Amino acid sequence: MSLAVAVQMDPIQSIDINADSTFALMLEAERRGHSLFYYLPRDLALRDGRVTARGHEVTVRRMAGDHFRLGALELRDLTTMDVVLLRQDPPFDMAYITTTHILEHVHPKTLVVNDPQSVRNAPEKLLVTHYPELAPPTLITADVQALRDFRAEHRDIILKPLYGNGGAAVFRIRPDDENFNSAIEVFSRLGREPIIAQRYLSDVRKGDKRIILVDGEPLGAINRVPAEGEARSNMHVGGRPEPTALTAREREICEAIGPELRKQGLIFVGIDVIGDYLTEINVTSPTGLQEIERFDGTNLAAAIWDAIEAKRS
């Protein structure tokens, strides 16, 4: 099976070819004989019900500094494509949301991965709230008094932007920390969105586990250990990746959420687990494929393409 694949992503020249999961998916697509068409979110257009993108045929290879070749600039009708990979990074802002509305006009005739309506309805830090029995104590609000009450109850808490990513603007507020009000002021300047507060989980010192689910099934994982003096485990901010295996509790979490992910057309999902708690369900542009393959040899990009091809057959 040869598929025509459009990739909606961030600028290809700036990606880290040794870490980027979109790059891994593109390499695997080429290995299978699929053709690739690359475009930026800003080059997507909807006119009179017709969805187009201005971009380039692209080929990729694992060569630092010379990892892609672009064809001529052209305009494509996305209904002529078999698959669109929705892979630009958050922030999950109105620009991002608008692309999901536009791509709904071609899905499922053209298979969009992940399903654009489900992506729009499932921001990482909100989808997890549908599973309160799996998550740590969590509050989402712009009400400062409610945040103060939550802090008074749980004492040691994490504050983070509701639609952020990569560990940006994440604060740990300890019981004796005098920066609570300053953190709230920072968030209020960033925008009008509510803040998410969670009870601090001391197990984060042992790592924040990223588990990859493909069509609802857990197929790989990596543990991310925070750097000394850092509350965040994201690899963007110094988290150290290490190999890991799933615990019984983590399998229980995956079994609880997997059927719903599959039902919603969320083929490629990365969840975050600290200790016994599910903290995020990442559906916009999950990462971790290359790190997992380096540790245990599992080619998750191949598993994702197996799932996509099964849906296109």
UniProtKB/TrEMBL annotation:
One of its GO terms (cellular component) is cytoplasm. Its EC number is 6.3.2.3. Keywords: ATP-binding, Glutathione biosynthesis, Ligase, Magnesium, Manganese, Metal-binding, Nucleotide-binding. One of its GO terms (molecular function) is ATP binding. Its cofactor is Mn(2+); Mg(2+). Signal peptide: none annotated. It catalyses: gamma-L-glutamyl-L-cysteine + glycine + ATP = glutathione + ADP + phosphate + H(+). The keyword Ligase applies. It is an enzyme of class 6 (ligase). Pathway: Sulfur metabolism; glutathione biosynthesis; glutathione from L-cysteine and L-glutamate: step 2/2. The keyword Nucleotide-binding applies. Residues 125-309 form the ATP-grasp domain. Belongs to the prokaryotic GSH synthase family. HAMAP family: GSH_S. This is Glutathione synthetase. It comes from Tistrella mobilis (strain KA081020-065). The lineage of its organism: Bacteria, Pseudomonadati, Pseudomonadota, Alphaproteobacteria, Geminicoccales. The gene is gshB.
